[in-house]
Amino acid sequence: MNAENSPKRRKNISYAKWGYLFIAPFFISFIIFSLFPLLSTIYYSFFKYYRQGLKIIGPTFIGFENFSNLFRTDLLNYLGNTLIMWIIGFIPQITVALLLAAWFTNQRLHLRGQGFFKTVIYMPNLIMASAFAMLFFALFSDNGPVNGSLQALGILSQPFRFLASVTGTRGLICFMNFLMWFGNTTILLMAAIMGVDPGLYEAAEIDGATSNQMFWRITIPLIRPIMAYVLITSLIGGLQMFDVPQILTNGAGNPDRSATTMIMYLNNHMYSKNYGMAGAVSTVLFLICAILCFLVYFIMSGSNDSVKKERKGGVHK
């Protein structure tokens, strides 16, 4: 009797609880360290809650007053600074990364020492941004090695104050972000290109397609999902830009606050213990980031759908 019933009992055993058990640590960590702080930040953005000396004012519910006060400040200027520095740094980053990824994965070139080059281009990503900023602060200071070399070569008659000009400060921040992240982008794009079916390139080569045509007609459309991932993660990181401009400008964002980012502005409110305004800044930044990321995602996914329709149309024809 027991022997007959044992197979039925085994069939009724459910292993779903083990799946829930294994994924529970992630959801518990997410709720404690991400979801709860996010909800509390949004909650306190509707309150007057700050410290004045030793006295704590609030929390007092004031509705959307923090948001209305926020948009009367230079918030949009700081958002513009952040987007400008991200765009200037991202365009050369994605361009150089695409070029290197295409070279490293090109079977015709047979480049040697690829492992060495991959390690070298990825190395800046391992260096702390604070150390990178301190290095550039020393290199490009008024009496630093860069100015000394340019004067010795006769290019400059007097030191150029990189950190006293808007172009120089923003240029250094963009250059540092480019150096730190182009290696990581290159590795991701290389992985995407290596996932493309080699038979497509062979068929295109037989049909007489050039290297440029294969790159733009085959490689780019097929790696568009990874391109979307790179763009979205870079956009999120760009909107959260803080450590490099904070250290390079000593927290002031000078000259004329042209290097002040959204997170630096948020940090000022956190430092002054104005939790209500800090919550409002965080909420606005979250909404801007979410909207831009959704726009990028839908634009990229829409272009993917158009490519698929063109292929199907070509096949039916």
UniProtKB/TrEMBL annotation:
Its main location: membrane. It is found in: Cell membrane. InterPro entries: ABC_transporter_permease, MetI-like, MetI-like_sf. Keywords: Cell membrane, Membrane, Transmembrane, Transmembrane helix, Transport. It holds the Pfam family BPD_transp_1. It is a multi-pass membrane protein. The keyword Ribonucleoprotein does not apply. Residues 79-296 form the ABC transmembrane type-1 domain. The chain crosses the membrane at residues 20-46, 83-104, 116-140, 222-242, 275-299. Belongs to the binding-protein-dependent transport system permease family. This is Sugar ABC transporter permease.
